[in-house]
Design goal:
It is a single chain. It contains 5 helices and no strands. The protein has one domain. Helices cover 74% and strands 0% of the residues. By secondary structure, it is mainly α. It is globular. Helix 3 crosses helix 4.
Length: 96
């Protein structure tokens, strides 16, 4: 019985920690993207915002260059690349 209670406590904490994750980009629409960008950057310092902005630009340019022949495909690829990502994940993507 003790093991079962311990297991429930561990699973419960796992759900709590998962819910407290960093905010992510929502690229489902232009409005959602704008709102999620504000949420992602609201607690950042100016230096962090600059780094994140540069990373967003780098990832966007990379995706655009890969899909240069089709504007719609490039926009869709950019949404797919950014959707659901945290600021840290986007910064890491820009370094690849």
């Amino acid at each position: 019985m003790k093991k079962f209670i311990y297991l429930l406590v561990v699973v419960g904490f796992s759900f709590v920690l998962a819910a407290c994750g960093a905010p992510t980009i929502d690229a489902s629409s232009e409005e959602a993207m704008k709102a999620s960008m504000e949420e992602v950057t609201k607690d950042m310092t100016e230096a962090e915002k600059a780094e994140f902005g540069a990373a967003m630009m780098a990832v966007s340019m990379k995706v655009a260059m890969e899909n240069m022949s089709d504007k719609e495909k490039a926009e869709e690829a950019m949404k797919e690349a950014l959707d659901g990502k945290t600021a840290e994940e986007i910064i890491e993507m820009s370094k690849e």
